[in-house]
Amino acid sequence: MKNIVKMYCTAFCPYCVRAEQLLNAKGVKSIEKIFVDRTPNGFEDMIELTNRRTVPQIYIGEQHIGGYDDLAALDRRGGLDPLLATG
Question: How would you write the pLDDT of the chain (87 residues) with one tens digit per residue?
């Protein structure tokens, strides 16, 4: 079983779109999206969980990856594919 990908995002976030595009290119078919701008207390919940105030905030399984830049850096280091493949 592959790890579940969860992303805290907003409806109009170019970095959220880029993160989703990268994940889709890596074969991720489903991303659990939590829209912090549409969910009651969503933004506050994200900050409490991640200690960050920007979107996207991405989790793969139980591991907090961070934002789009963190995700892209993980991919450049060769660490994204193995993380997506395990579960």
Answer: 578 999 999 999 999 999 999 999 999 999 999 999 999 999 999 999 999 999 999 999 999 999 999 999 999 999 999 999 876
Domain count, the chain: 1
**Amino acid letter, 80:** L
**pTM score of the predicted model:** 0.93
Print the domain residue range for 21: 5-85
DSSP 6-17: EEEE-TT-HHHH
For residues 54 and 85, what is the distance between their CA atoms, to the nearest angstrom? 27
